[in-house]
Amino acid sequence: MIEVTGNILIFSQWSFKDALVQTYTLPYVDMIRQIISPHRKILLITAEQQHIALSKGETDMINKEWAARNMRVLPEPYERFGLKKILASTGNLFKWYWLIKRENIKTIHAFCTPAGGIAYILSKLTGTQLVIDSYEPHAEAMVENGTWREGGLAFRILFSLEKKQTQKAKALIGTTAGMRQYAAEKYGVRVKNFFVKPACVDMEKFSPKEKDTHLLKELELENKTVCVYAGKLGGIYLKAEVFDFIKACYDSWKDDFRFLMLTNASREEIDAECSRVGLPGEVVISRYVSHSEIPAYLSLGDFAINPVKPVPTKRYCTSIKDGEYWAMGLPVVISPDISDDSGIIEKEKIGVIVNFTQKTEIARAVLEIKELLKFKNSLREAIVHVAERYRSYAIAHSIYQKIYSSSDAE
User: Fold this and answer.
1) How many domains does the chain have?
2) Which of 172, 252, 280, 399 has the smallest C-beta neighbourhood within 10 Å, fewest atoms?
3) Nearest one of 172, 173, 179 to 395, comparing CA atoms
C-alpha cells in the first residue's frame, strides 16, 4: 500500500514524556520499525510542553540509544492550536520542508488530526505519502467540550484540514468503525483504505494481579471496596457528577468504600467537591503517578469508572483507560455512547452504563456494580478475554503489516 522507497517521518503534537507518546505512539513506532527495512530511517517530531519538555541532554541520550535502530527524535516547542500556532507552524514549514528533502522522507505518518493538518500541508508541498493514525474528530470535539467557539477561526481551520487530510491520506487508521461514516457525513468523503485500531494495551504490563500489599497498607485500603479512576476532572470528563457517584457508593458501602483517584487535580479542588456532596475527605484518596506506576495502583481496585462527557463526537474516539482497566480485569462504570466501549461493556456484561447526570441512574448503577462484584473471579476472567479481543497489540501490528509490509518485501 505504501511506496517501497524512502524514510518515514512520524508527526505528533504531544510531548515525548507525555503518556500519549509513551503508551500511544512509541509502541506503534516500534511496530513499524520491526516491519520496515532496517535501512529506512524513522524520524519522530514531538511538541514539547514546557513543564515536561526534553532537555538537550535527554534528547541526546535518546538519540544515542535510537541510532542503533536508525531512528531519531526531533523535539519542537509546543503551541496550542490557534493563531500563534498557525504562525509558528508557518515558520516551521520551511524547516520541515528541507528536512523532508534532506532526509529522503517519502511517508509522513501523523498521529491525530491536529498533527495530521500540518502533515497534510507538508505532504502537499513535498509530494510525500500521508498516513493518518488515531483518526478521530477533533475540531467538533473542541467545540463540544467548550474549549473552542463554533465557527471560530481555530475550528474552521482545523475542520477544513481534517477534510483535506481525509481526502489525501493513503491510509486512515480510525479509532472506531463509525469514523468511516463520520467522514462521509461531515467531510463528504468516501474513504477507501480505512482501518480500525482502538487504543491498544500492553497486556504484559497491564494484567490481573493480586493487590499490591505495600500500597494497600500505605493507603489504608485493606478490607475496603475500592473504585479506581485514572484521569482528570473537567474538560472532556465530568466533575461534579463524579462526586455524586462517589457519594452514592459511600452511602451504599459506608466506611468499607474508598475511591482512588489517579489524577493531577489539586487536593483543594477534590476537598471542595467532597464538602459539596457531604462526603468525608478520607474516602477519596488522590495521587498523581507516572504511567509506569499505574498498573500497581489499578491492582488495588475492585471496579473502575470512565466518566467521559457523552458528547456526540465521543462515539468516534478511542478511550485508552478502558483498555487498561479491562486488561487488569476491572469492570467499568461508563457514560453511554463512548467510543465502541459502552456497547462492548453492555454486550459482554462487564460493567455498567450510566448517565452520571441523573442521580436515580447513579443509584441504579451502584446496585448493579455491587451485584457484578459478587462474581468477581469469573468476571475478571471474562473481562481479560475482552481486553485480549478488543485491545491486543496484535490488532495494531496487523494493520501496520498491511500498510507497510508490502513496501519492504525485498
Assistant:
1) 2
2) 280
3) 173
Same domain, yes or no: 193 and 217? no
Check residue 87 and give its pLDDT.
Answer: 62
Give the cell for residue 186.
461531515
- Measured CA to CA, the distance from residue 221 to residue 217 in angstroms comes to 6
Cα distance between residue 336 and residue 330, in whole Å? 18
pLDDT of 291: 87
pLDDT of residue 4: 64
Q: What pLDDT score does 410 carry?
A: 41
Rounded to an integer, what distance in angstroms lies between the CA atom of residue 308 and that of residue 338? 7
Tell me what pLDDT residue 219 has. 96
Instruction: Please report which helix (H) or strand (E) contains residue 396, including its range.
Output: helix 393-404
| Per-residue pLDDT at 50 | 92
Residues 363 and 399 in one domain: no
Whether residue 196 is found in the same domain as residue 217: no
Instruction: State the CATH number of the domain containing residue 162.
Output: 3.40.50.2000
Q: Give the pLDDT confidence score for residue 88 in this predicted structure.
A: 64
- Asked if 198 contacts 392 with a C-beta cutoff of 8 angstroms, the reply is no
Helix locations, 133-178, DSSP H: 139-144, 153-168
Indicate whether 208 belongs to any domain: no
- What pLDDT does 225 receive? 97
Instruction: Tell whether 314 and 401 lie within a shared domain.
Output: no
Cell of 64: 544515542
Note whether residue 205 is domain-resident: no
In a shared domain, residues 232 and 308: yes
Give the DSSP H/E element, type plus range, for residue 72. Answer: strand 71-77
Alpha carbon distance 117, 112 (integer Å): 9
Q: Which residues sit opposite 74 in a β-bridge?
A: 45
pTM of the predicted structure, to 2 decimals: 0.91
Cα–Cα distances (Å) from 186 to 6, 82, 159, in that order, read 33, 22, 9
Q: 137 and 222 share a domain? A: no
CA distance 298 to 262: 9
pLDDT the model gives residue 146: 86
Residues in the chain with pLDDT values less than 50: 409-410
Domain encompassing residue 36 = 7-200+392-408
